[in-house]
Write a structure and sequence with these properties.
This protein has 116 residues and is mainly β. The chain has no helices and eleven strands.
Length: 116
C-alpha cells in the first residue's frame, strides 16, 4: 500500500553536497507532515527536518543553514538538500510522513556517509 522510496544517498567528502529525495505513493498525502530523520550507529534516531503541507519547516539546530527541506504536493515528494556536509552527518536517513489519524510511514532508509 503506502510506500516511501528514498534516493540520493551515498559517499561524499566533507564540505560536499547531496540531495535526498523521497517519493511517496499509496494514499492521499495532503495535510501531512513530511520529514527526514537520521540515525547514526549507536545513536537514537533524530529528526533532521520537517515540512508541513503548507510549507512550514523545522530543522534540528545542527543542520540549520546547511540543509533545506522541500516538498512537492503534486508529486508527493519530499527532498532534502544537504550542503556543507560534515562527518557527523553520517547516518542512515529516513523519509517520514505523519498523516491524520495517527498514521506514520517510513522509508527504508538511505545511507549518507561523509568521509574522505
Amino acid at each position: 500500500q503506502v510506500q516511501l522510496v528514498e534516493s540520493g544517498g551515498g559517499l561524499v567528502q566533507p564540505g560536499g553536497s547531496l540531495r535526498l529525495s523521497c517519493v511517496a505513493s499509496g494514499r492521499d498525502f495532503s495535510l501531512t507532515i513530511m520529514g527526514w530523520y537520521r540515525q547514526a550507529p549507536g545513536k537514537e534516531r533524530e529528526m533532521v527536518a520537517t515540512i508541513t503541507s503548507g510549507g512550514g519547516t523545522n530543522y534540528t539546530d545542527s543542520v540549520k543553514g546547511r540543509f533545506t527541506i522541500s516538498r512537492d504536493n503534486a508529486k508527493n515528494t519530499v527532498d532534502l538538500q544537504m550542503n556543507s556536509l560534515k562527518a557527523e552527518d553520517t547516518a542512515v536517513y529516513y523519509c517520514n510522513i505523519v498523516a491524520r489519524y495517527q498514521y506514520t510511514f517510513w522509508g527504508q532508509g538511505t545511507q549518507v556517509t561523509v568521509s574522505s
